[in-house]
Design brief:
The chain has 10 helices and 18 strands. By secondary structure, the chain is an alpha/beta fold. The two termini are 23 Å apart. Mean pLDDT is 82; it is low at 1-8 and 198-230.
Amino acid sequence: MSAIEENVDGPTEVIEVLFALHPSFGAQELCGPIEVLTTARHNIKDPETKAFNCTLAAATAGVTSSSGLTVKADIDFEDALEDLNDYDVLIIPGGSGIDEVLQKDGDPVKLIKAFADLQQKDPSKERTLMSIGTGSLVLAQAGLLQGMAATTHPDYYTKMEIICQEAARRGDLEQTDVMEENYVVNNARFDLGEKMDENPFILTKRPDGRRKSIARKGSNAWKESVKRRESNARRAALRLGGLRVITSGGVTSGFDASLYLVAAMVSHESALEVARVMQLSWNKGVTVEGIDV
């Protein structure tokens, strides 16, 4: 990783993001999050303080979306697996080709499982696994959503529940709470602070018992992580070694989940600036689990 912003606290690193693409992926499920992430800056007044760097991985040199858009992959899955520890975020777009991915149980699934394994072996690092739309079905089939909450495209709620139930039977029988939400965050990270009643990461519960998200100031997790002491033992005790898992609904939900990621890893100010520049209305999702690290 490259250090691109010098300040009194030392350099700020670029957050490395890997997109795993499959044939007939959803074009907007790739382009939307990429636009959000590459627009983000650590310092919104300094265009040189790039926050995220995005890399595309696919089985072939070129991969075509369901709408006919062909993009060039930066690396193949073999190289992605070899260099997986270099990445902080792994994103799985959905799309009409997701059924074939589920049937073959191939490269994207191997990549996802390997990424989760890395977090369990080294919980000291802040890693995030995010899916857009039906991409969450792949996470479910891989057994990574057991004991967690998740969402997907509204047309696939039932299929998601079936896949999660099958994964539970193959695994340790832990169920997945499939939620009808814009996006769902598991294993969030934030600082509680001294005035918890003023911290937007402390969530209230709705009448149905689920926690509702509210406006967030951002955790500054990426910049602050080098300065604060983290409890690796506590994180290791969480599901998947404390891997932050974000699942989102349909196309525009991917924009919203990406804005959350900017807020969580960079700052809330940066996320709001991205939304302003892109003229997006940020519709919040739900955080179902959080730890003070």
